[in-house]
Amino acid sequence: MLTDDILSTTLETGIDPGNPDIFKIFLDDLQGNILKGHGRDYSVHLLLRFKATPAEVAAWLEGFTKQYVKSAAQQWQETARYKAERLSGGVWANCLLSCQGYEYLGIPPFKIPTDKPFRLGIKNPDIAQTLGDPSASQWENGFQGDIHALLLLADDDSQHLQNVVSGIADTLEQIADIVQRDDGFILRNAAGQVIEHFGFVDGISQPLFMKSDIDAAKEKDGGFDQWDPRASLDIIVTKDPNGLTEDSFGSYLVYRKLEQNVKKFHTSQQALAQTLGVDNGLAGAMMMGRFQDGSPVVLSDTPIPDNPTTNNFNYDADTAANKCPFHSHLRKTNPRGDTGRVVSSDDVAQALAMEKKHRIARRAVSYGNADLTAAPETGSGLLFLCFQANIENQFNFIQASWSNSANFVKVAVGPDPVIGQPQGTQQWPSQWGAPTREAVSMPLCITLQGGEYFFAPSISFLANLT
Ligand code: HEM
User: Fold this and answer.
1) Mean pLDDT value across residues 224-253
2) How high is the pLDDT of residue 309?
3) Phi, psi of 160 (to 5 degrees)
């Protein structure tokens, strides 16, 4: 059985499903896509409101799980087969429940996952206030009522995915209404890198759990001497109260549909560049923390030709934030030791260890207009998904206490100019490396269109619901 000690230990080499050892049962019963992204190019998110009897709903979910949902172990086998024989794993699926979904199924309260925000739901006014969100009445219609479940389906072949989804939608009709459907895709730049709508390479920095990911990152970045991305399992999974094995775990998922006003972002970026007298690329890098190609702005005032997407860096040599502003999206959402170095120097290692407990596993995809030249103002954005073991201490903490706060990591640095809400005034280095500051207020370019908190239960629970 996996003890708390094992779960809280950062594994030197990570988990190797080819040689699972004590993790065998765990990997067989945990849904895939949690420890490592599923990697498909197209995805469909079906948000459901149940309408049949609990027994009928349970039977449908059980059948769906047996047919489509894959475990972490199966995900690994598929990847291995793909590498060896180029054989696609086919359709990907996850099945997740909201707190109201558990209640609908008649699961007793003491068996419903206990995370506080999960229990309250993301529409709860206190949660909305904590996160600085617009009230649910301003969201897209589909998000406004009860949401019981999320089915995530994905494939590399978009037509095949559409066919599978329409087959699933037909049978779903008997037990649930699809109150919201969000289609996502991987947006890429001309170089084939994964980007988001503002044009920046995304998904570079993640907590790593698997041996293959750790080996690849180590090789790419020449080691982890500046930043160690490895993480212990207790930041990503938590015991599934309904699991049928001794190592049944699940993970909380935050789902947020974030509309990006691309035109407004580019206009604000240009205005910032003009005010500071720097070039447009550098202004964007000071907002994001990386240049569009991924180069960390703390390392250079121009994109780095070799390995721009390095993740082996920190802010040790920039404690005054003259190169990478404290408010930049990257530094707000992962301060890489700032809380120890900048705020108090009592115990830097302990402060870093605490900070690292707030990390999330991002699984976002883009939606809307895939034309990179379009600069849409509405209708496009990021389906922001992230897994974690504790919503309050991870996603909510990052959004509320770091990104939204004008006073993190120091007084009056201003909110994160990308995702911080409400709008505030940031203190920007007058030039890269300069100790002087210019106050500029970035407008909000991202609007929440709706969302919910979910739990990805163990497969043994979902496959034995009846
Ligand atoms: C990193 C964009 C929303 C948390 C990044 C990166 C980009 C980006 C371009 C750099 C790539 C990387 O280092 O992986 C965006 C956009 C968003 C968005 C356009 C909304 C439309 C969010 C939200 C959160 C978040 C809502 C959490 C509250 C993070 C974290 C990192 C990151 C933790 C990695 C930082 C690091 O480890 O250095 N984001 N992001 N992002 N973002 Fe976001």
Assistant:
1) 98
2) 98
3) -60, -40
Q: What is the pLDDT of residue 345?
A: 66
Residue 44 belongs to what H/E stretch? strand 42-50
The string of DSSP letters for 49-79 reads: EE-S-HHHHHHHHHHHHHHH--BHHHHHHHH
To the query of whether residue 338 is one of the catalytic residues in this protein, the response is: no
Pairwise CA distance, residues 208 & 214, whole Å = 6
Counting from 1 in the atom list of ligand 1, the atom nearest the Cα of 202 is: 11
Reported as a pLDDT band with limits 50, 70 and 90, residue 282 is very high
Report whether 260 contacts 269 (CB < 8 A): no
Q: Do the strands 194-195 and 187-188 form a parallel or antiparallel pair, or are they unpaired? A: antiparallel
Six-digit token string for 11: 């594994």
Residue 204, token pair as written in the block: 């570079």
For ligand 1, the distance from its centroid to the CA atom of residue 384, given in whole angstroms, is 9
What does the pLDDT read at residue 88? 81
Cβ 199 vs Cβ 4: under 8 Å: no
- CA distances, 292 to each of 199, 277, 321, 445 (Å): 6, 19, 20, 17
130 burial via Cβ count (<10 Å: 0-12, 13-18, 19+): middle
Rounded to an integer, what distance in angstroms lies between the CA atom of residue 42 and that of residue 37? 13
Amino acid in the structure at residue 124? N
Is 395 close to ligand 1, i.e. is its CB under 6 Å away?
yes
Protein residue whose Cα sits closest to atom 11 of ligand 1 = 202
- Which residues sit opposite 92 in a β-bridge? 154
Which ranges of 191-328 would DSSP assign to H, the alpha helix?
Answer: 211-221, 262-276, 280-288
Give the span between the Cα atoms of 181 and 367, in whole angstroms. 11
| From 299, 419, 445, 448, mutation site for ligand 1 pocket: most ligand atoms within 8 A of C-beta | 419
Return phi, psi of residue 163, to 5°. Answer: -65, -45
Instruction: Tell me the C-alpha distance between 252 and 236, whole Å.
Output: 8
The Cα–Cα gap between 355 and 366 comes to 28
| DSSP symbols for 189-212 | -TTS-EE-TTS-B-S----B-BHH
Mutate to test the pocket of ligand 1, among 266, 326, 329 (most ligand atoms within 8 A of CB): 329
Strands 425-429, 381-388: pairing is unpaired
CB–CB of 290/296 below 8 Å?
yes
DSSP string, 337-350: THIIIII--S-HHH
Residue-level pLDDT at 174 = 97
């950062």: which residue's tokens?
Answer: 10
Task: Report the distance separating Cα 76 and Cα 59, nearest Å.
Answer: 28
Q: Is residue 113 predicted with pLDDT exceeding 80?
A: yes
DSSP 397: H
